[in-house]
């Protein structure tokens, strides 16, 4: 399943407060949260992110709070996937639980430049940089996470477990 | 095969004889909790499962602490979602204004946090509870909803890192300084996905309150959980409050660790995390005597009675600087009451500090002390991220309670010995 969009670059250790600031956590609505995505990181960034785009980050993306509002704000902006060198653990779980795929790829994180056109295949982890004519391969998603995604996230997974009883 | 305390607890709850780092397991949870921000999403996801029944209502706590008392109409609406849910399911452990405090402090005091158990909370600082020897970790709302429905959740067994403290602590150095030092050394992702086990003879010098500050901040190093073996200090503290019988667990002597770090704490000075990362750790003496607009003493990290005592020792008989404002927020009604009984509230009040009802408040930039552009705050909390306590151009220093109180008196960042007599550490 491949989709194409523009890359928006952010740095290392982007924390959940920079993804969505605490003052906006008075709602769980993805659209309302998305309006303030990355606001304290760069107030101009949100306007540049169009539906179908990708966020490309460095190390430890999503450090900090357990707020699921962080992946929800990203999903609300219709970002198709994150590409980063590494992720913080609670964010990692939350993203998959909310249908936001995370790709881990050091080469892509380093070589992709802001505004590059990408085509990303979530299933295979193949990242094509259409602007630069380069291809990168993300680490494969662990089997357990793949099953979780295939089931439709943790809630669907629970439903199946309960149905099987 | 020898196992660490974390591995043993996970194995026991997965019904296995042993586990290894990297194993994926499904483990039983002994206790669950969520707060006013994470619960509404968990409720939505729980209702999506269609189960219609919480696996054991006695093992779920809801604490309204972040935007409570309701700070505005939006938070009032949001808090009402949890209130309605608690009524609908007639939940026995629902904490609202008056009985609520910062959840991590409150739930430990109320005996929900027990050695050898698994505690899951929809809040990243749930790692707090490891100070009593349980596996306690933060999860998102969807994971919590899954556990509410089934009583179980999947985990990857973490690699364990061991931090061994030796030596005498110097005056004004507290548990907070130990954990900040570690985060400064290994970085904000130095323990990513790992269990952080704290050990060594110095732990005996720390009150349980100070130990909680250490495990509380495991997440700031990327850790999955922070944990300590329960000694008699823990067992004595639990005796009057434990809600259930429990079985303490200890690491095997020959358990293996991904890495062992040794600290001689006798040289350690009070430190701060300078803006804007918890990993940006320097001795307070090197902080350039920066002017301070606001001081905040509170939170799940350092809003316990021992923190208020340390702050009171520094500020007793003195005044908050005329260009500085000081907020003290006891982390729970119990801490508040104890501070009243010990005369600490009067000390703060006499010094010109504001004392508020228990809430997370300014820690998350919500209310009760939000910062303007260019302002500097010294906070006993755990995160000094950009925008955390208000405007994105505000700057936050993290410190222990004595350093924070000293900043309030001096109006700038100083070593506590500059404003208070030496040797008053305990
Ligand atoms: S006091 Fe701060 S860190 Fe602790 S739970 Fe509240 S908002 Fe989170």
In words, what does this structure look like?
- The complex is a heterodimer of chains A (165) and B (426).
- Chain A is α/β, with parallel strands linked by helices and 165 residues long.
- Chain A has one domain (2-163): Aconitase, domain 4 (Alpha-Beta Barrel).
- Chain A has helices spanning 16-19, 30-34, 45-48, 69-76, 89-97, 106-111, 143-151, 154-164; strands spanning 2-9, 54-56, 81-84, 102-104, 117-121, 126-129, 134-137.
- A seven-stranded mixed sheet of chain A has the order 4-3-2-1-5-6-7.
- In chain A, strand 2, helix 4 and strand 3 (81-84) form a beta-alpha-beta unit.
- By secondary structure, chain B is an alpha/beta fold.
- Chain B has two domains: 5-263, Aconitase, domain 3 (2-Layer Sandwich); 269-418, 2-Layer Sandwich (Aconitase, domain 3).
- Chain B contains 13 helices and 18 strands.
- In chain B, the strands form five sheets. A five-stranded parallel sheet of chain B has the order 4-3-2-5-6, covered by helices on one side. Chain B has a five-stranded parallel sheet with strand order 16-15-14-17-18, with helices on one face.
- In chain B, helix 7 links the parallel strand 9 (195-199) and strand 10 (225-227).
- Classes of the chains: A alpha/beta (165), B alpha/beta (426).
- Chains A and B meet through helix 5 and helix 8 of A and helix 2, helix 3 and helix 5 of B.
- The structure holds iron/sulfur cluster.
- Iron/sulfur cluster (SF4) is lined by residues 66, 102, 123, 125, 299-300, 360, 363-364, 381-382 of chain B.
């Amino acid at each position: 399943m491949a989709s194409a969009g523009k890359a928006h670059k952010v740095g290392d250790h982007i924390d959940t407060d920079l993804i969505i600031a605490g003052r906006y956590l008075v709602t769980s609505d993805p659209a309302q949260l998305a309006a303030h995505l990355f606001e304290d990181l760069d107030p101009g960034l949100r306007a540049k992110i169009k539906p179908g785009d990708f966020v490309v980050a460095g190390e430890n993306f999503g450090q900090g709070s357990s707020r699921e509002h962080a992946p929800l704000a990203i999903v609300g902006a219709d970002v198709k996937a994150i590409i980063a060198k590494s992720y913080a653990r609670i964010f990692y779980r939350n993203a998959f639980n909310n249908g936001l795929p995370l790709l881990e790829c050091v080469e892509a994180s380093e070589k992709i430049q802001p505004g590059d056109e990408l085509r990303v295949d979530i299933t295979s982890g193949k990242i094509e940089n259409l602007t630069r004519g380069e291809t990168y391969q993300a680490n494969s998603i662990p089997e357990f996470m793949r099953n979780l995604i295939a089931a439709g996230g943790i809630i669907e997974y629970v439903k199946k477990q309960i149905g099987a009883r | 095969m020898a196992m660490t305390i974390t591995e043993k607890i996970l194995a026991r709850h997965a019904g296995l004889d042993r586990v290894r780092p990297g194993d994926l397991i499904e483990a039983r949870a002994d206790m669950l909790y969520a707060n006013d921000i994470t619960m509404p999403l968990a409720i939505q996801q729980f209702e999506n499962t269609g189960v219609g029944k919480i696996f054991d209502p006695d093992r779920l706590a809801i604490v309204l602490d972040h935007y409570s008392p309701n700070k505005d109409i939006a938070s009032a609406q949001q808090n009402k979602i949890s209130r309605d849910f608690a009524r609908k399911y007639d939940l026995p452990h629902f904490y609202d204004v008056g009985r609520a405090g910062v959840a991590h402090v409150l739930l430990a005091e109320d005996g929900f946090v027990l050695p050898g158990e698994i505690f899951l909370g929809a809040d990243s600082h749930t790692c707090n509870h490891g100070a009593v020897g349980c596996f306690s970790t933060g999860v998102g709302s969807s994971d919590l909803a899954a556990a509410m429905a089934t009583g179980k959740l999947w985990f990857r067994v973490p690699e364990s890192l061991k931090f061994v403290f030796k030596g005498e602590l110097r005056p004004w150095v507290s548990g907070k300084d130990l954990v900040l030092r570690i985060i400064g050394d290994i970085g904000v992702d130095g323990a990513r996905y790992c269990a952080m086990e704290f050990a060594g003879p110095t732990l005996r010098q720390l009150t349980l309150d100070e130990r909680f500050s250490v495990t509380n901040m495991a997440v700031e190093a990327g850790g999955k959980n922070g944990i300590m073996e329960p000694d008699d200090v823990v067992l004595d503290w639990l005796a009057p409050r434990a809600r259930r019988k429990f079985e303490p667990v200890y690491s095997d002597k020959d358990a293996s660790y991904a890495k062992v770090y040794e600290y001689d704490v006798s040289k350690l000075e009070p430190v701060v995390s300078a803006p804007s990362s918890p990993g940006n750790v320097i001795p307070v003496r090197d902080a350039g005597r920066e002017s301070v607009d606001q001081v905040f003493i509170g939170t799940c990290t350092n809003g316990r009675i021992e923190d208020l005592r340390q702050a009171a020792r520094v500020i007793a008989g003195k005044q908050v600087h005329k260009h500085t404002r000081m907020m003290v927020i006891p982390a729970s009604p119990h801490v508040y009451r104890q501070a009243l009984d010990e005369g600490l509230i009067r000390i703060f009040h006499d010094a010109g500090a504001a004392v508020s009802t228990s809430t997370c408040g300014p820690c998350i930039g919500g209310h009760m002390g939000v910062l303007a552009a260019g302002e500097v705050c010294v906070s006993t909390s755990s995160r000094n991220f950009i925008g955390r306590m208000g405007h994105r151009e505000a700057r936050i220093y993290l410190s222990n309670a004595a350093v924070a109180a000293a900043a309030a008196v001096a109006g700038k960042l100083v070593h506590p010995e500059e404003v208070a007599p030496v040797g008053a550490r305990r």
